[in-house]
Amino acid sequence: MSRTPTAVTVVVLALLAEQPRHPYDVFQTLVERGDDRLVRVNPGAVYHAVDRLERDGLVEAVGTERAGNRPERTTYRATPAGHAALAPAITAHLADERPALPDFPVGLAHAWRLPVDDVAAALRARRDREAARLAELRARIDAVRGEGLPRRFVLDGERELVLLTAEIAWLDDVLRELADDTLEWGGPPPPDFLAARARRLAATDTRSTP
């Protein structure tokens, strides 16, 4: 791949490197394996990724089939170039240094502008949703491990379990402090902080002046 591969492109290429599939089968396999929690994917995104991979010479069409009254479906497989590109693409994602930019931190950074009840309600909803995700993911991992799937195949799930557990615990702490007013919610930053920041910025400007 001449440019940085997207996450969707990598997972699609990986499935086509396993065996020939048509794009909708790729999507169904992603959902069945739970990989739709790793990337935001829908059938359209899969078809787009396959088109891009085909343009880059990394996959090729190997046949077309029709089942009943359904539209024709083209089956694709990874080319030798696609097989060769897969390992570097996976390595690039393992060592990725680009910061993740999810929406939640933006909300946290500006939450102080909202009434405390609104913040608590939003965080409580997030906490309950993440707890449900945690239970579902733990059950799924326990199920496939119980069927004999080696741990190396679920490292991504293990990492997500750790992150979800930590986030839920943190949310519980914040919600408790919002409830008992430990966070002293409301109002802009205190005057002492603003004065200290102004002095620091002034000192920085003085040092940077030639």
UniProtKB/TrEMBL annotation:
Keyword field: Coiled coil, DNA-binding
Pfam families in alphabetical order: PadR
InterPro entries: Metal_resp_DNA-bind_regulator (IPR052509), Tscrpt_reg_PadR_N (IPR005149), WH-like_DNA-bd_sf (IPR036388), WH_DNA-bd_sf (IPR036390)
GO molecular-function terms, A-Z: DNA binding
Domain Transcription regulator PadR N-terminal: 12-87
Keyword Chloroplast set for record: no
SUPFAM superfamilies the record matches: Winged helix' DNA-binding domain
UniProt key word Lipid metabolism: no
Coiled-coil region list: 120-147
Domain of life: Bacteria
Gene3D superfamilies in UniProt: Winged helix-like DNA-binding domain superfamily/Winged helix DNA-binding domain (1.10.10.10)
Stated name of the protein: DNA-binding PadR family transcriptional regulator
Source species of the chain: Cellulomonas iranensis
Lineage: Bacteria, Bacillati, Actinomycetota, Actinomycetes, Micrococcales
